[in-house]
Amino acid sequence: MLKTFSFALVLLACPFIAFAQNLAIRFEPGAKVFRLDGGGVSYVFGVNTRGELQQLYWGGRLGAADNFSQASPMPEWASFDSSYNNTPQEYAGWGAGLFNEPALKVSFADGNRDLVLHYESHTETSHGFDVVLKDISRPIFVTLHYAMDAENGILARSATIENRGSDAVTVEQAAAAAWALPAGHYTLNYLTGRWAGEWNLNQETVHPGARVIESRRGSTGHQANPWFAIQSGEADEDHGEVWFGALGWSGSWRITVEQDQLDEVRVTGGFNPFDFGYVLKAREKLETPIFYGGYAEDGLGGASRLLHGFELKHILPRTQTTAGQAMPKPRPVIYNSWEATEFRVSEAGQMELAEKAAALGIDRFVMDDGWFGQRKNDLAGLGDWYVNQEKFPNGLKPLIDKVHSLGMDFGLWVEPEMVNPDSDLYRAHPDWVLHFAGQPETEQRHQLVLNLARQDVREYVFGFLDKILTENDIAFLKWDYNRNWSEPGWDQLPPAEQKRVYVEFTQSLYGILAELRKKHPRVEIESCSGGGGRVDLGILRYTDEVWPSDNTDPFDRLTMQDGFSYAYTPQIMMAWVTDSPHWLNERATSLTYRMLSSMQGSLGIGANIANWTPEEASTAKRLIAAYHQVQPTIVQGALYRLISPRDGSEFSATQTVRADKGQSVVFAFIHSTQTGHSFPTLKLKGLDPAAEYALSSIEGKARAGTPAMASGAWWMNHGLEFDGGFRGDFQAMAFRLDRK
Ligand code: GLA
Q1: How far apart, in Å, are the Cα atoms of 539 and each of 244, 514, 708?
Q2: Which residues of the chain fall short of a pLDDT of 70?
Q3: Most C-beta atoms within 10 A of its C-beta, which of 56, 238, 246, 375?
Q4: What is residue 182's predicted lDDT score, i.e. its pLDDT?
């Protein structure tokens, strides 16, 4: 029963809008083995002789004729380590003496908490399987969804948990998926941070026990990101096996990486079980988020290139103008006024900035916080989404018209899920916020979180956003979210059901975003949460870009951008050039250095350009024009991290190569030259060795004698050398190569 897809599939309900080639889906009824092959990857699992669903293989693609026997459970190690515990199950219920991380834990109404899931049935879908498991005695059904991407073998896994009984059950823990790795020695990579310090890459040996990466905050969080990559002992940036995954969920989440007593490594991820308790009434279902997982045999670089391509082609939304296209369009170069004016926005001030921005070659003008309600600072106004009459006496239209007349489109900042206690909205609806009745409401940045899970709140939020977008010609919303949860009560519901807020808040957010995009199909949206607090593959299905950090220091950004790139494509990585010295570190850097740092991602300008000298304006204008020419290569090409800026590195460099290998862009940065070191020769990657490439400078000089044209083999083997004068503190150069 081998099924190979070689035709184009467009499936809106499926996580992939895919051109499926190279995908093989197979079920062997005799051995009860399920096999998925896509790209360079095979994923195999089967029904074991006890009836459990057991993982058999995840790694490089196997031969089409290779067969697996029926899965047999792992043997018991001792009376303390049962076979049930040792067997890598696809989705283990907590029962039968399981001490490892369960995928699912439930409490039944009668106090029974034993859940043992056995295979029941399956169906083949366009990209994989839906496999139904059932508890051995109770009518709890779990449908595991598997969908593999044909091109790169990334597997999307999720679960639907259904109560077909007549009594309610409480789901106390529900993963999207559990992944098992072959026995071996591994290094775990994961991303952590804080406000203004996101995207630190951590690399540590996987030891016995569990490493938990999580958010308990009600949203994705700055502190950890729902992504992991586990490399085998020998692997590095360019070589070796890497298993990676990313969870598509913007609420509280948890990923547990566990090495058990037999040295087996498993990764389980989904809803965070902390304070979780989802009551499933009779015939109700709970859908988990999707946990995406992939495998690369060319190191961490290979893993991130697979993930970038997958995000571009299958996760990021399309607008009316890009519907049906393989790739979303590169982001417009934006101007944002936040660092220039903060809350002091006005019609005249914004118009002046818009004129300056247009002269630089900016595509999109974005007005940030301060334009609505009684918003003079962060003490008041959130929730009151009417235009402030003092600042914009004639509404937004004159400003938007002006921006359009200058050849730019217009974007606006909103923070829809929040309310200041000092607002008309809170005065009218104090019960709309997350709270526990009678308890103090903890403010952060003087604001409270609206309970988006409530139908009335959802209608209000959708209503005002729809109105703003209907009444104004707005191309873009910067959607902010400037605090995490406290007192997550939902007192409209009976006490036992209030914890549904952990699921339904986020589902409601996704629902609002989806509805808005449907009704306003030209509008693009940025996910911002005080910087990079809400970046994950869940929100990215509804948003076109993210704001990685409020920290715009160009030197700090190099390390953040490096960390970010392990999990997310540069396409979505907005990077503004702001003023020097920088407000956070008081570090002074040249405009050229700042520009090149931001040009590694999706460029924007966030400086007070009203104060720029003519020389600064002309530098920015020249580099914006150069960026426009190569932007698709930078943000959608294959990224090679040639020299990492991490760990105090003196140098750093990246290279991106367009999919057809026709163009490449190289960025090189010096932190601080020491003892006269020269910049290392960069051996480029990913070019066509036989093709001829012309080198041209975007900024800076190659070493005297560097050929203007040479083969891909020359650039990759001999390498690119830099001018001897490339020394000093915070220096940068950039080059492009174009195939002749
Ligand atoms: C957050 C964002 C900033 C800016 C401010 C406005 O901190 O990350 O970019 O929009 O809010 O209040």
Answers
A1: 19, 10, 44
A2: 1-21
A3: 246
A4: 87
DSSP for 384-402, written as a single string: --SB-TTT-TT-SHHHHHH
State the distance from the centre of ligand 1 to the C-alpha of 480, rounded, in angstroms: 7
Residue nearest to atom 9 of ligand 1 (CA): 550
Q: What is the dihedral of CA 566, 572, 577, 582, to 10 degrees?
A: -50
**C-beta of 409 in contact with ligand 1 (< 6 A):** no
Asked about 110 being catalytic, the answer comes back as no
- Residue to mutate (ligand 1; options 369, 420, 526; most atoms within 8 A of CB): 369
Nearest CA to ligand 1 atom 2: 530
Token digits of residue 331: 């982001």
Task: Find out whether the beta carbon of 547 lies less than 6 Å from any atom of ligand 1.
Answer: yes
Longest Cα–Cα distance in the chain: 82
Q: How far apart are CA 230 and CA 187, in angstroms?
A: 6
| CA pair distance 138, 431, nearest whole angstrom | 39
Identify the H or E element spanning 449.
Answer: strand 448-449
43 lines ligand 1 (CB under 6 A): no
**pLDDT for the residue 511:** 98
Contacts of 66 (CB under 8 A, 6+ apart): none
- Ligand 1 proximity of 528 Cβ (cutoff 6 Å): yes
Q: 729 an active-site residue?
A: no
Nearby residues of 21 by Cβ (< 8 Å), 6 or more positions away: 5, 6, 150, 151
Q: Residue 504 phi/psi, 5° resolution?
A: -80, -25
Rounded distance between C-alpha atoms, residue 172 and residue 305, angstroms: 36
Residue 411 corresponds to which tokens in the numbers above? Answer: 């974007």
Q: Whose CA is nearest to atom 6 of ligand 1?
A: 369
275 backbone dihedrals φ, ψ, rounded to 5°:
60, 20
Q: Which residues of 727-738 are buried (b: 16+ CB within 10 A; e: fewer)?
A: beebbbbbbbbb
Instruction: Decide: 310 and 18 in contact? Cβ < 8 Å.
Output: no
**Ligand 1 centroid from CA 225, angstroms:** 20
Best of 375, 446, 480, 547 to mutate for ligand 1, by most ligand atoms within 8 A of CB? 480
Structure confidence at residue 183 (pLDDT)? 86
Q: Which residues contact 206 (CB under 8 A, 6 or more apart)?
A: 185, 186, 187, 188, 230, 257, 259, 265
Per-residue model confidence as pLDDT tens digits over 556-571: 999 999 999 999 999 9
Q: Which of 37, 135, 384, 480 is catalytic?
A: 480
**Residues 740, 735: Cα–Cα separation, whole Å:** 16
pLDDT for the residue 21? 56
In 440-505, at which residue ranges do the beta strands (DSSP E only) sit? 448-449, 476-479
- pLDDT reported for residue 431: 97
